[in-house]
Amino acid sequence: MWHGGLVLIALGQISTDSSHAAVQAVAIEATLLRRRHLKVNVKNQWYSTADEAVEDLASPIDWEHDSEEIRLEKELFQTQRDQKAFNAFEDDEAALVEDDGAALLAKLDADLDDGAGSNAGRADQAKSFDNEEWRIADTFSGPRLSLKESGGFFNEPDSSWTRRKALHNAQMKVEAEYKLVEQEIDEKHPQGRQWWQIHYEPSFHCAFSERLGAIGEGGKWVCDPHRIAERVKLGSQCLVYSIGSRGEFSFEKAVKKQISDQCEIHVFDPKEPTSYQGGAETPKGMTYHTSPLGSSGEMVMGVRSKTMEQMVDDLGHRGRRIDLLKIDCEGCEWHTYKDWLTGGTEPQQILVELHWKKLPEGGWRKAHEFYQFLFSEGYVVANKEPNTKGCSGDCIEYGFIKLDPAFNDLAAY
Predict the structure, then answer these.
(1) 138 shares its domain with 209
(2) Is 158 a member of any domain?
(3) What angle do CA 150, 151, 156 make, to 5 degrees?
(4) How do residues 131-152 score in pLDDT, each as one tens digit?
(5) What pairing do the DSSP bridges indicate for beta strands 45-47 and 39-42?
C-alpha cells in the first residue's frame, strides 16, 4: 500500500488464541526512494531487497557486531517464525486427536522422512518420549535447539537457548572450581544449612514457574506447568508420581486444578493417609498406594518397600513419561535416586526434598554423588528452597528438569 511514499510490509503475521502468548508480527519499513531500486530499512540498517532483509533477520545474532535494535528485531522475527510453525503443528495435531487422522499421521511421518536427516539416528531416543514431542522438533524449520534439547518442552529462539546454555555452564564451572578447594571447607560445615548455602545453586531458570500446593510444607515449585496443560489439551497424557504423603494432598490437588483434571496421579506412602495426625482422605481422581519407595524387599515402617521399577511395572507405565516425580520420603532419596530413572520412564521434572541428617556414611561426599549422577543424566537445577521451618534449613527442596545431556558441557567442568 502506498502511503506518503512509505511501504509497510508485514512478514509472517500470525494470530494466536488465548492458550498461547501473543507474538508480535515483524514489520519491515520500506521507503521508496526516487533512485534506481527499492531500498529496505530495518532499524537504520539498509538492504537492497525485502528478501535480503528477511535472510538477515533469520540469521544467528552476532553479539559483537549487531546493534541492540537489530538483535531485538532478529529475536522477534525468529520467535514469530517458530510460533507460526508451532501453531501449524498444533492444528495438525488437534485434527489427529479429533478424527484419529491416520492419513494425517502418515503425512507428518512423510514430512519427517523428507527433511529430517537425523531421524534415523534418534530412533532409539524417540522411544522414550511421546511421539508428538519429536514431531514438534522435526517439523520445524529454522532454530529448534530448545525443542531438541528439552524433549519438546521448551520452544524459544536459538539465541535465547544458547544464552541459557552459557549461563548454565558458567554456573556449573563456578561450582566445579569451588570443589577444587572444598574438602577443607566442607569439613568445617557439617550442617546441611551451611553446606547447601555454598553448593548447587539453580543454573536454569523457568519464566513461568508456579508453586503448586500449600504455603510452606507440602507445596512444590513446578517449572512452567502451563506447558504440561497445553500438551494435555493436544491429547498428550499427564502422569504424576508422588512419593511420600503423610495424608497431605495440597500439591496433588493443585496439579488437578492448575494443570489438568486429566492428570493421572499416583501417591505412594507406607501408611494409610488417615492414620497420620491431621491426615485427610485420598481426594477423588487420584490413586493411593500403601507402598513405600525403597530397595527391593526393604521394610519401611513395617511395610515391604518397592523399587521405582516395580511400581512402574505394577501400574503398566513402562515406556511412559512421568511429567512430575515428587519425592518427600524422609531420607530414602539418598539410596534410591539411581532407581528413579529405571522402568523405562524418564521423569521430566523431579521435585525432591533432601534431608541432610539422613545422609548415609560418607556425609557430604555422598551428597555430591547424588548431584553428579543427576547431572550426568541431563538434569539441571531449576529451583532451590530451604526448609527453614521443619528442620531449620537442614532439609532443602530442589527442582530438577530433564534436558538432553548435550545441554551440559560436562567436559568443561
Answers:
(1) no
(2) no
(3) 50
(4) 444 444 444 444 478 998 998 9
(5) antiparallel
